[in-house]
Amino acid sequence: MKHSDKIRDGQAAVRLGLIGAGIIGKKHAVMAENFAGCRLVGISDVNPSAKALADELGANYYSDYEEMIEAESPEGVIIATPTESHATVGVTCAQHGVHLFVEKPIAANVQDAQILVENAKENGVRLLVGHHRRFNSLVETTRLAIKQGKIGKLVAVSVLWVLLKPSDYFQIEWRRQLGGGPVLINLIHDIDTMRYICGEIKRVYAETSSAVRGFEVEDTASVSLRFSGGALGSIVVSDCVPSSWSYEATTGENPYYFRTDDNCYLFFGTEGCLAFPNMRLVRYENPQQAGWQYPLLTEHIQVDDHDPLIRQLDHFCRVIRGKEEPRTSGEDAMRSLAVARAILKSGERAEPLELS
Ligand SMILES: NC(=O)c1ccc[n+]([C@@H]2O[C@H](COP(=O)([O-])OP(=O)(O)OC[C@H]3O[C@@H](n4cnc5c(N)ncnc54)[C@H](O)[C@@H]3O)[C@@H](O)[C@H]2O)c1
């Protein structure tokens, strides 16, 4: 289909620009090119090698994103630059009146996130943050099952994100330094997913360790959580252990990861338990015969398979057109960042921390 011919629901496709054509930016660009609801009008990256991608996708290349905005007048931009620049780039785009999709985490720290959220508001632009797991059908179905009380009242949740990062991953300096580790880079996804499924996290208590790799950054953390609804949670996160228990490995969402058929989350309720992502629910069939001597019934909850990144892109187009509210707003994403930051601080101080 020619770009200019893209029409959806009787309206011309949403004009989008991409800022930052690295690992995730390239994925967004290819998806946008193939999605009927939008038209990728420009790609901006400080690295000129991104021009080849722009040429391939029929978009114009710019080394400067402000030039791209002035020349192409996109309705929205996808910001997939390194995390430290999300706030600066986001604020500048907001001042140009362009709606924002910002990759996760919303910013490097809560103060920067706050500035971005305020600027988006002041300039009347919508802000969606890329916690794409909220669009994964497994996550949506689990959230609904828990809301509908399929396991009764939520008592506790167990979260594992444990795998082995290859040693060449650590050749890049920032990945060996504080802030470049599994809590802020990886666990923030699980934190956001837990908040989405189980509600707000009000207290964290973490132990962190860097004993295996010996870098400044943590390689392992163990975290206790208290949710505002009263449920408790426990997390083990580690990037130095050969393991089959992580969201990426168990859901198969990202084909880069070796896939396993294990679970990464377990939800425990007053009437049963649900394993994720194999969606096995166990409970007693007859409430009169409940207790450890009785057999448990096992059910399997069926889930449709959809690509969460495409659903997220579709959602962004609808957000731009005012048809939907951002599923992960700036304030919401800031909260996930605050929890991740609190986990690191709790580990440093060896004390529990309340989240306001
Ligand atoms: N949602 C997810 O699952 C997911 C996955 C990977 C990365 N991310 C997030 O996406 C962001 C980017 O990560 P990545 O791994 O793709 O990084 P990357 O380093 O591969 O890509 C970043 C790109 O931004 C470009 N860039 C830097 N400053 C720029 C500027 N001012 N203007 C234009 N381009 C600029 C760089 O040249 C590079 O091409 C990070 O915030 C990361 O946390 C999210």
Care to describe what's here?
The chain contains ten helices and 17 strands. It has a nine-stranded mixed sheet. Helix 4 runs parallel beside helix 5 (110-122) and helix 7 crosses helix 10. It folds into two domains: 3-125, 3-Layer(aba) Sandwich (Rossmann fold), CATH 3.40.50.720; 134-305 and 337-354, 2-Layer Sandwich (Dihydrodipicolinate Reductase, domain 2), CATH 3.30.360.10. The N and C termini lie far apart (50 Å). The protein has 356 residues and is an alpha/beta fold. The mean pLDDT is 95. Bound molecules: nicotinamide-adenine-dinucleotide. Nicotinamide-adenine-dinucleotide binds at residues 19-25, 44-47, 65, 80-83, 85, 89, 103-104, 130, 132.
Summarize the entry for a quick read.
The protein has helices at 23-34, 50-57, 65-72, 86-95, 110-122, 137-147, 182-198, 247-251, 308-320, 330-349, and strands at 7-8, 11-12, 14-19, 38-44, 60-62, 76-79, 99-103, 127-130, 154-162, 201-209, 220-227, 232-238, 265-269, 273-276, 280-283, 297-300, 353-354. The chain is an alpha/beta fold.
Distance between the termini: 50 Å
Ligands in the model, by name, code or SMILES, are: nicotinamide-adenine-dinucleotide
Structural class: alpha/beta
Largest sheet: 9 strands, mixed
The SSE string, one letter per element, is: EEEHEHEHEHEHEHEHEEEHEEEEHHE
Q: Kindly estimate the percentage of residues that lie in beta strands according to DSSP.
A: 15-25%
Please, what is the CATH homologous superfamily of the largest domain? Dihydrodipicolinate Reductase, domain 2
CATH architecture of the largest domain: 2-Layer Sandwich
Number of strands: 17
Q: Percent of residues in helical segments?
A: 25-40%
What is the name of the CATH class of the largest domain?
Answer: Alpha Beta
Number of domains: 2
Strand order of the largest sheet: 16-15-14-13-9-12-11-10-17
What is the name of the CATH topology of the largest domain? Dihydrodipicolinate Reductase, domain 2
Mean pLDDT: 95
